[in-house]
Amino acid sequence: MRHLNYNHLHYFWTVANEGSIARAAEVLHLTPQTISGQLKLLDERVGAPLFQRAGRGLSLSDTGRLVKHYADEIFSLGSELSLVVGGKQTRAHSALNVGVVNSIPKLIAYRVMEPVLSAELHTRVVCTEGQLENLLADLAVHRLDLVISDRTIPVGMNVKAYNHPLGESPISFFTKPATVKRYKSDFPKSLDGAPMLLPTHDSALRRQLDDWFKQMDIEPLIVSEFEDSALLKVFGAAGAGVFPAPQAIAPEIERMYGARAIGAAEDVRETYVAISPERRLKHPAVVDIIAKAREQLFHS
């Protein structure tokens, strides 16, 4: 692609934000014909149409959404530069867009991203939660800078991204304080027939737990299943049953949910991975996240 004309890019960006050429023309104090002509030139430089018709209005094409992502960054930095040079602002917080796979425990996600939350780093974290495949699609078009996952990139998925292992944690079982003695004395046999809260069958952790129960000749009474790990812990703290969670965040679980650990399934381990669009990490916040997660959270 040839060098872009930034005036053309600014016209495109204004149209995308305003939703129509007519409204953009009013904002830019130009004629609609002028803006239409400039957009046509930008389409030619990019090599693909940036807008498509949507009724009487315009909507961004896939290429248009990608270009707008970069335009947002470019004009945001331009505004920041004006403020800094004018002395009205010392330094703005840059945005780090992170996708978190929805099966990841929320406390793990927080602990992984905690290093970049200090004001000194001037980083504003924007979190999106969803299925791994959807988050990887957003990563591929640069809507996300990083994905935190409990599994690596699926084999055969056509996306240019790279796995950066963070570490792993054994799984422990927790219960409310009143029932700790009952389950701790003969663990893990004490889990046979125990009311149990588990992740749903489509999670990797659930499959590991089911295999472990079979190996231990244990048949718990499954009373509830959850997609959301935080909701699972809330039910467990309320006394609905015994529940599994990563040993790496045991102190936080005991403090926040008032639950107590009764024992660990050492052979059941949850793995955590940071996925980035680049093999060689450059973003300082991403480098910090990965280094500190390995060193402080998972000790790997």
Write a concise synopsis of the structure shown.
This protein is of the alpha/beta class. The chain contains eleven helices and ten strands. The protein is elongated.
Please give a structural write-up.
The chain has 300 residues and is α/β, with parallel strands linked by helices. It is built from eleven helices and ten strands. The chain has helices spanning 6-18, 21-28, 32-46, 62-85, 106-113, 132-140, 180-184, 204-215, 229-237, 250-257, 284-297; strands spanning 51-54, 57-60, 94-101, 123-130, 146-149, 162-175, 195-199, 221-226, 243-246, 260-276.
Largest sheet: 6 strands, mixed
Please bin the fraction of helical residues. Answer: 40-55%
Number of helices: 11
Low-pLDDT stretches are none
Helix/strand class? alpha/beta
In the CATH scheme, the class of the largest domain would be Alpha Beta
Radius of gyration: 25 Å
Q: Between the first and last Cα atoms, what is the distance in angstroms?
A: 43 Å
pLDDT averaged residue by residue:
86
> Largest sheet, order of strands side by side?
4-3-5-10-6-9
SSE ordering: HHHEEHEHEHEEHEHEHEHEH
Q: What is the global morphology?
A: elongated
Topology:
Elements lengths: L5 H13 L2 H8 L3 H15 L4 E4 L2 E4 L1 H24 L8 E8 L4 H8 L9 E8 L1 H9 L5 E4 L12 E14 L4 H5 L10 E5 L4 H12 L5 E6 L2 H9 L5 E4 L3 H8 L2 E17 L7 H14 L3
Parallel strand pairs: 3-4, 3-5, 7-8
Antiparallel strand pairs: 1-2, 5-10, 6-9, 6-10
